[in-house]
Every structure is written in C-alpha cells, then in structure tokens.
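ingest -> fold -> write
write: protein_1
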Amino acid sequence: MKPSLRILFAVAACSLLSSQINAQNVAINTTGAAPVASAILDVSSTTMGLLIPRMTTAQRVAIAAPATGLKVYDTNTNSFWYYDGAVWVEVLNGSTGWRLTGNTAAAANFIGTTNAIAFRMYANNVERMRINPTDGEIVAGATASPYAGDMLAAVSTATLPFAINGYSANNGSGTWGEVLAASTTAFSALQGVYGGGGSGAGTLGNYNGTGTSNVRAGVFGVCSTPTASAAGVGVSGFNAMASGNQRMGVLGQYNGTAYGLAVVGLGFGGGLPAGNNDIAVVGWRANNANFSGYFNGNHVIANGTKTASVGTQWGNQLLYCLESPEVWFEDIGEGQLVNGVCHIELDSIFKQVTVIDPKHQMHVFVQMEGESEDVYVEKGMTGFTVKEKNGGKSNVSFSYRIVAKRVHFQDHRYGNDPVWGGGDTRHYMQYAPPPPIDYNENVKFQEEQRANYKPTPMPAGFIYYETLQRETKQAETTRPVSSKQEYTQPSNEQKGTNGQQGQVVPDSQGIPAQAVPAQPAQETKKSAGQPN
C-alpha cells in the first residue's frame, strides 16, 4: 500500500472514533469523553478490546534492549509476558497459576519447582515446611532433618514441642507404622530413641482410657507370624550397654501406694492372684501341670526361706525346706531283715544323680521297726547292707534315710554370695516375724507389716526401691494442658461450597484452634550413630 493510502486509511479510521487530545494525555473512545487525568492514554469501548503485539517466544527473547515494563503476547505459551528490567516474566492466569479457590487440574499439573531449589511453604511470612530438591525430603519446623535418610521429618519448636502427633476419635489408631512384607530390614515399624538428659524413654505407651479390661496396657506386644517357626516374643527388652553394671533388660514396677504384682508370667491354665498382695515376681500355671517357673544355672538364691504353700482346713499353710551347708540328695525307703541281714540296692536314678566314692560317701540312717539286736550298716558304691549284731537272726522290718552328694556339686560347702559385698554382712539381715496360721490374723499382720515398712539396709551401690519409684514418676506420661479450644468436627458453615472444609481460624499465636485431649509425650528421633 502506498504511503498516501495509509494516511487516507488512518484519517478514515479517526473519523469513526472520537478523539480527545489534551496537552498531557489522550482518550480514544466512541463517546467523545475526555481522558481521565491519571492516564496518559485512556482507551474505552464496550464492543472492542486492546490488541498488543503478538509474537513467538523466539521473537520475544530477540527484542533488543527491551524496556522495563514492556509487554507482549507470546503465541507459543499463549500467555502475556512483561520485562522486569532483568528477565522476561510470565503473567499467570487461571491456566498457569494456582487460584486461592483451587483449580481444575490436569494430570500433568503440579505445584512445585522445576529447578534445584526447595519448594517452601510459608504462613505469617515465616517458612513452616519445605520439600528439599535433592532427595524429596519433607521437613516441617526446620530447613532440614537433623539426620539423613528421613522421608518425612518434623522438628519441634519452643512453641510446638511435640514434633509428630497422631490422634483418632474413630475406629483406628492414632499412629500406625508398618514394615511391608517385601522388606528384609532389621529396623522396627516404630522406633523411638531418647537422647536427652531427663527421665524420658525411647518409647512410652500410656493407657489413659476408661476401659476396665484386666489386660489394658501401656505397652502391648504381639508376635503373630510365622506360625511354622519356633519361639517368638510379644515384648522383648534388651540392654545394649557394653560396660558398667545394673543394666536391666526389663524392669517391672507398680505404684507403691497401691498393691500390685511387679512382673507376672501366666502359663496355660494359670490365674492372676487376687487380694492385697505385694509380689515382685509371679509365675502361675495350672496345678499338677508343667512348670510355673524354671531357672537354669548353678545357683537359685533366695534371701529368705524356701517355702511350699499347701492347702489345709485353715487355709494354705507354709512348710519350710531343710537347708544345709552342702548339696545333698536324699532317698527314704524301707526293708526287712532276713535272718538278721538285708541288702538295699540304690535306685538307679538316684545313683545317676549323686556321686558316691571313697571321698564322697553316702550316709545311711536306719530305724528298726521291731525287736532285734542292734544293727550296723556296710556301705558300698551302689548300695548298702544292714546287719544285726551279735549273730542276731531277726526278721523285722526297718526304714532308712540315705543322703549322698549331688553330682557336679559334690564338693560344695558354703560359698560366698558376692551380691552383698565383702566384710560382715549380718547387719543387712533382719528378724522375720512368723506369719500367723489364721487367715484373718495373717491379713491383719501383713497390713501392719506394710504400714510399718522401713527400708532395709543394703550395700553401697544398690539402687533403693524408693529411688526407682521417684525416678519413674519423673517421666512425663501425659501432655501438658493445652490452651487451645476443644476439637470439634467442622460444621456446615465451616465447609466450602465444594464440600471442602473451610479455613480454621487460628488463635493468637497463629496456631489452628483444634485441640485434642491430653496424650502421652513421645520422642521418635534417631540417635547419633544410628543407621539411616
């Protein structure tokens, strides 16, 4: 088109529009209205729009020395771009930006970064959470986990000292951890490590409910598979300290202001004792069946009597063992003289469990049960012979008691118990008043013994019961009282029009006002040196 035609066309276009040109601004419209004072160019229309330059991405980035604020439409990205003085910046819209009310997303859409910069989330202009770019680690409360290898890490703050909490008011657990079947790791599904200097524990379980089940528990362990293999432990305790002493794998206690059983083992058919009892260890199995307790070692030591409890018309009565400085087995039997002589061959089992030789001879005690001359005993290695003196030819019966040294313990006589230390230890022992035979009197006696309890003296280094009770009570078992409002399910007014829950109004500290009932304090972080 010739220049004269371009000018003619421009004049014709201007004849269709009304222009107002003032000294400092211009208006283009069809109404003849003057431009607003604050605009250098005021364009208005109800039937047409403003069309700015359109170009490809290559053409846009090829603009030489673009001015700050220069704006174009990119036909490759189908979006507006402006130059901010340093780089081109895309103007976000409903397709490229994320609306405050949410977007209808496509499968390829995402929120995040496309370079090696962390995706950070802020509230009140403070970073609250981030996803680190190198490994995808999610961190709340800090910029990184204290340890490598965490997929999700929450680091507590002074305002929020409980890093991770799970709550359930429904048919489910507050926290669930599971190592899936495909894994062969030796790590646990839930693992807690206490690395502080207080009285906390690696893992705390606290039953704080309202149920009255006999097996309600702070910690409950179950071993359910595989059924084809032997062994398996519901709860296991292991102390891994490689030096020192008094290292406990499992400690059982109860609040000393009440009665209780510190450790209980119930075998098949056993039961839990009733009544006001203070018992350190209980092993209970059905009567006349197998073992209620089993100890394998050279010595099973009791600092009191070894006692049997036997039922009578006056209740169970205590019968006490005869004790000796040496280790003896005994057998009792009977025989009869025939013409003044009787040989007794020892029981085959008794011979296998005892040692009888010139150094360790057996001892035989004979009680005649009829009139005869005096008798004497000739001992052998496998039996003994009872003979009547003075050529007697009696045919009377007798009973005998034989004792012999236990095999493998035939040289024992006394032996120091190092638990009580050296020197004179008699002051650690106390007189034990005998319990009454009558049940009611004995109950009263036991109550008086408890009411008048005084700690017994123990050697240096022993940890007293009172100390363990005090230290145990120092452990925090419940969360501090929360200042937040009681948690309630959102009402219809709190939900958005899409059925989504609306915003929860924060309290004065910017924390959402959703409190929960008091729960056990827990620490769940790996300790230094733990594998990741």
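write: protein_2
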Amino acid sequence: MRGLRLITAVVVLVATYLLGSFFVGQSAVQYVPVYALLSLGRVALVYFIALAVGLGFGILAATSKTAERILVPIFDIGQSVPILGYFPIVLTFLIILFPAGVGNEIGALFLLFTAMEWDIFFGVVGAVKAIPSSVEEAARGYGFSGTNHLRYVVLPAVLPALLSASVLAWNDGWTFDAASEFVQFANSAGQLTTYFVPGLGYFITHSLNMGNLAASWFGVLVMGEIIFISNQLIWHTLQNKVAKHKPLLASVIRDDFQSPLRLRKRFRRIFSFRLRQSGQEVRATNQLSTRVVALIFVATLAFIGFLAYANLPISAVEGFVAALTTPDGQIYNVPLYSLFTIGRLLAAYLTCVAISLLCAVLAVTKKNFYRYFYPLYDLGRSVPYLAVFLPLFVTLHASLPAGFAQEIASFILLLLAMVWYLLFNVVTAARALPTELTEVSAVFRVSGWRRVTDIILPGVLPAFITGSLLAWGGGWNVVIYSEYVQIGQSAPYVLPGLGYLLDNAAYVLGDIPLVVFFLFIMSGIVILLERLVWRRLLKRVERFGVEFN
C-alpha cells in the first residue's frame, strides 16, 4: 500500500510537469524539478535543525525550573515578533558579514528556522509536562533515571506531540519559503537591490516579474503538491504508526503491573485534545506580567518621543532621530495605520470564526462530516498561502482596480493563514465531546439553536480561545506581506497599514532605525493583544473545561 502511494505521488508530479511543459512552455518550466529539489532540501535541512533545537531545549525547559524560567519567555517573545518584520535587518547583517551568495542562503535558512521552531519547542514542552504523575511514579519505582528515563518515559510521551508539531512546522516552512528565496529592498542610498536563492519560491516570484503569470501559478501548484504528498507519505504515516504502538515504558513493565496504573490508557491521553492546548498553557504560566510589558512598551515610546523633540546635541542621538523622523517614513500615520491593519485582521478572523463554528456544529450533528472534513483540511492546509498571494493579486488586478484587488488578495491571504488553527482546534474539540451529552440532549429534546448555545459552544470554548490565539499570531506574521507588493521595477502597490510602513522603511528607504521602530510598535501590539485579550480569556474559560477522556 505504501509503495503504491509512493508510485502514485511520483506519477502525479511527473504528469504535472508534462502538463506544465505543454500548457506553460518547456523553456519556462524546465528548471522547476531542480528548484523543487533545492527548496525541498532547504526546508528539510532547517526542519532537522529546528527538531534538534526544539527537542533539546524543550526537554530541558520542561524538566528544569531554572531553564524553564529562562527559555520559555525567550521563545515566547520570539514567536510573538512577526517574522517578516525583522528579516530585512537580519538579511542585511548576514550579507555584510558573509561572502556574496552565502549571506543570502543563510538568511533564507534563518527565516525558515524562525518559522518552524516555535511549534516544535512548545509542543515538546507541553508533552513532557502532560506526562501523568502515575507514569512518573512507575518509572521511579522501577529505577528509571537519566538515559533510561529519557528513553522509556520522556521520548514516548513527546513523540505524538512532536509529530503534530512537525506537521505544523513543515507546512509553515513551506509557507515562508516563498518569502525567503526572493527579497527586494533598498540600501542606505535608496537603491533597490534583489537578493535571491534558487528554489520554487524564487521561481514563483521571478516568473511574475518576467510577466509569466501561468508559470508562477504552475510553481504554486507544484509546491502545493509537494506539501500534500509529504504530509500524506511522511507525517500521516508516522502518526498512524505511533498511534498503533504502545509506549516503551509499558513494554518493559510486567503486564500485571499495567492494569492497576492503567498505563496504556493514561498514555493514550497524550493523544487527546488536552495535549494540543498544553503548549499554550506553558506560555501562559511563564510570561512576563502584562503590566510590566505594557510599562516597557509605553516607556520606550515615551523615550523615543523625548529624543525626537528634545534636540539633544549628541551626534549619535541626532542621527537616530533624523533617521526616525524622516518625512518619507510617515511616523505620524502609526495610530491610524495600526487601526487599518487590525481591521483587516479582524475581518478575516470573524470570517474564520463563522466557518469554524459552522464546522463544529456539523461535526456534532452530521455523522459523515469527518469523512469529508479531514481530506479537505489536509488539502487546504497544503496551500502555500504566501506563494499564492502574488499571483492571486496579479490575476485579480487584471480585471479589478489595484487597491480593490490587493484588499481582496490580502483578505484571502489572512483567511488562509488563520482559519486552519481555528478549524483544527474547534473541530477536534467537537469530536472529543462525550457521546453522553448528545444522548442526554436527545432525551430532553434539546435541539436547534439551543443545542448549539447550551452544549456545543461551551464544549468547544477552550479550544476556540486557543485557536484564536494561534490564528491571530499567524495573521500578524503574514499581514506585512500583503500590504506592500513589489513586482519587477514598477511602483509598489500599497495598502495603508503597519505592514506598509515597515516595508516602506525597509524596501524603499533602507532606514534601519525606522524599521526597528515600526517592528517594535507591531510587536508591542501583538504581545499586548495576546496578553490582554486571548490569555485572559483562556484563563477565564478554564473553569468551564470539558473532560475529554
């Protein structure tokens, strides 16, 4: 069966290439297999690096209080900063530091690493902390410590969550591949420079710049097929194997000792829905105080404002203020443009909420829902939405005004970036609702809207809050990409927003202090919204949690 699936995958890829050669042109797509292998190798290499870092530091943070106090806040703040915001600064530094071409490659690898690492780290930390106390007691009773404890207790507990996190990290890596392989931004003199590394992301953007929209869409199709095939052949296969095998600890303990402790049942809980929230719970219990974060944010803004208006006779300060207050930087637009960006995110989020809650209701009320949902979910999750954005905008712009086309493309991009987090969490929670609830509701004739408000919504509420937190983080990561579009040497297409201000400072002005300032503003808003809204809501609904075992 596995060999048949592999042969089918190869046939699909070969057929896609032949069809592309016929409809798009042989000369346009002849290097696509090479580009696909280069991107695949790049994403795979970074995944293994992220796996080693996440597994090592995750286990350390979960088993050592001192390490936890240091590592979890660092990783939490790192995942809160929009990736594409600081990428121009990092890339500039690497290009200066390393020889031509090497800095570009390291920069692409760095962007992929920051896109993939957080899921793995927090998944590992949450999985280790979710190990049942009875399993730890059994391990101590049998003298497991050091390497044996790691082999028979920690790694079996981590494996299911690690595979789930790996699927997310793998997809995120491919998503940001398009942004990592082709970058255009200005130097300090305002000259536009292109930096690229060969791969599918480069092929998609370069084809658009050359005016070949069909070739660009072909690159998107190939990338989506690779993501879908790798998910099916690698990650789903591994998840199925892990689900069928009992934990290693159970295999070395006598059968008569397993029954009282119900080790197998307790280990199976690691596969349950609660584990998918444990990473968020770890973050919530290891964060800086909201008041401290707000105080730092306001104090920094006040200090920058003081520097801007104090006219201090210090050369370094004068240079910083001049770079920060350049008229082209539009620093005065920050409050209004912040609202524009939040408005775009809110519109996409509300649409995601409607879709997710509808699916939750269908999951409870329709027996055949899962037969169609999971294949469609796998297919949709395989769409590399950053790679889709540029050809989608060009396609829409052919028949619509530029601003309207960009708004629609931005909405679709944000929708694709946010909806999967909500769908996965909410539908999984709906599926895990005890069947007794459904039976009792039928006995007491609780149906229609009352069934939704009294049973389904309370049951999925914790998952809904967790999914919302993740969805907003995903949206902030890509909104920068949608508000500033540069195709070839033509004038950029822009939407008013924080992403535009940041990209304008980086790609047009080459003003690093201004980039840092806008990145600080955006990161501050992301962190404050996360702590003031989503984390507080998550804590409040914990008392309404449903036992899923």
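write: annotation protein_2
The CA atoms of residues 188 and 510 lie 5 Å apart.
Residues 448-482 form the longest helix (35 residues).
pipeline exit 0
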